[in-house]
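Might you be able to consider the sequence and fold that I enclose below?
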Amino acid sequence: MTNKFLKTFLNIAFLLLISSCEEEGPYIDFAPPRAINDTTYISDTPFVMQNKGILIEDFSGVRCPNCPAAADDAKNIADNNPGRVSIIAIHPLKADLDGLTKPFIGPPADDHYSKYDFRTNDGNTILQNLGGTGELPIGAINRKKFPSENYLIRRDKWATYSNSELLDSTPVNIYLTGYNFNSTTNELTIKIKIAYTKQVSDSINLLSIAVIEDDLESVQERKSATGSTEFIENYVHMHVLRGMVTSSLGEKLNASYVPKRVFEKTYKYIMPSNQFSNNPWNKNLEVVVFVHTSLGILHAQTFKVH
């Protein structure tokens, strides 16, 4: 090996080492895409810009006494901004959070019995990508790192940051163009259309699709009005993350992000069976669809699918 070649080789190796040590923002995932049909093109006509939708990710647990209050906070924000706030209640499958998230298995170990195990690996992946935590409740607003904050934010600040994000416009529209749920096979098919109304300079835009379910009655530990702990046997859990249709951290939209750019994608997703009890899921399903970069979520929409 000549000295000139050796020097060039070492320089390249050094640059690769430096680049690998640079801090990346969250939500970068280069896993293979899961779409079964995927096309992109430039539309002949422009699109009318949608009102920006934001996302609240509420990290929660059935043994967390303060988590119902956080769920109420998220609901109040959504109620005050109809159609513009998506909520995902995430129960991470994470060993050091078991004291807050593990379902009640009934006597003799527990005096209460959970009908469901809401925990997911996807939820834990998302939590770790946002910095991880050993406490609940905690949340993320549009996956944004606000000044003097981490990505994970205490619930008393959710409304302030949500209201701030709602003032922005979005450069991308999101449409649900078709869906089907087969209750026999538990297969969900969804068709998504993404259309850009403005140019986005970020080099990587990602699409994430989460399946959530509403109206799931199961026990929840809660702090009462007097400050004591109580157990609500038929607490109604809302916006519960079932799983991710895309990879946990999103899938790259592979084209330029310019006005009239359109992506059309079709996904098939097999809903996981709930092996924790005989109580079936898949009754009140929605999908939360959002486009995001390492700097935050550009737009989020929730669609009923079952």
